[in-house]
Amino acid sequence: MNDLNLLYEITETLGALAPLPRSLQRVLQILAQERGTLVKEKTYVDEKDVTGEEPRIGVFICSCGSNIAGTVNVKEVTEYAKTLPHVVFAENLLYTCSADSLKAMPEKIAEHKLNRVIVASCTPRTHEPLFQDTIREGGLNPYLFEMANIREHCSWVHEDREEATAKASDIVQMMVARTKTDNRLTPITVPVTKRSLVIGGGIAAI
To answer: What is the pTM of this model?
Structure first.
């Protein structure tokens, strides 16, 4: 939500609680006219058909400030990733989810002719959709992307830097092995029968 929409929501909520002074009513009218005018529809380049191509994997290793880099030697993990089969590009970024990093990712996809992308960073539960959307901007199917969780699964649960670095390298290696078998996928919609049958009187019936 941008600042304009936020201001509109706050003013509208106050108006629902109590009558607004005329000045604020006027503000609300102005905001109502301008609301949504700054919204831009996102456009994507045509999706490239990479069927049958030899995997060309790009690996982006995130430092996440000190969240990962404070425990894991991210430079060493990046250099290790460069040695893995089918990896043609690997880079360490301070914050992979930053605006600058997201802007650069489609450029790297084009420059190195990448057809698979891995981000080694945090949990996919929060950031996977963001990165999938980003590689779409580079012309790749969003399912040609994988995340290697080297934060929650590694840096946050280890104290020994050497062991954490070795584990992060292993996680990246496993994800590279997985990514090279990824294929283009297309979401489908299926009908749902809005009826159910509960059998038994146990926990399922509660």
So the answer is: 0.76
